[in-house]
């Protein structure tokens, strides 16, 4: 029976190499599959970080405008909180999607 098996598969070093590779790919705590998942998650987290940094920059700019320009503050109050001056009428138009 041993004569039918190629000599490469009977080599103890080759068998040990195969066992180690299978262990590293599937069973180890730092397996290749786990590394791939962690790299994908890291890419997603970096994208989220960039998104939030842009949002912070945009909000900081808007906050600076609101605190330094009274006309901008008045425009924001009218648009967001439907505030009005004495004697004005406000018409709210709701757009259907």
Shape: rod-shaped
Strands, total number = 0
- The tally of structural domains comes to 1
Q: Which runs of at least 5 residues are low in confidence (pLDDT < 50)?
A: none
Q: Which band does the percent of strand residues land in?
A: under 5%
Largest sheet: none
Report, as a whole number of angstroms, the end-to-end distance. 75 Å
Helical amount among residues, as a percent range?
Answer: over 70%
SSE inventory with pairings:
Layout (H helix, E strand, L loop, with lengths): L6 H4 L1 H16 L4 H37 L1 H12 L16
Helix pairs in contact: 3-4
Task: Jot down its keywords.
mainly alpha; 4 helices; rod-shaped; 97 residues
Describe this structure in words.
The structure is a single chain. The chain has 97 residues and is mainly α. It has one domain. 71% of the residues lie in helices and 0% in strands. The chain has 4 helices and no strands. Helix 3 crosses helix 4. The protein is rod-shaped. It starts with 6 loop residues before the first helix and ends in a 16-residue tail after the last helix. The mean pLDDT is 87.
What's the short story on this structure?
This protein has 97 residues and is mostly helical. The protein has one domain. It has helices at residues 7-10, 12-27, 32-68, 70-81.
């Amino acid at each position: 029976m041993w004569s039918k098996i190629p000599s490469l598969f009977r080599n103890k070093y080759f068998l040990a190499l195969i066992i180690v590779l299978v262990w590293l790919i599937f069973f180890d705590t730092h397996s290749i599959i786990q590394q791939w998942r962690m790299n994908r998650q890291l890419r997603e987290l970096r994208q989220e970080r960039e998104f939030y940094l842009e949002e912070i920059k945009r909000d900081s700019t808007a906050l600076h405008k609101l605190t330094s320009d009274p006309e901008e503050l008045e425009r924001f109050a009218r648009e967001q909180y439907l505030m009005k001056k004495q004697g004005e009428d406000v018409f709210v138009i709701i757009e259907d999607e």
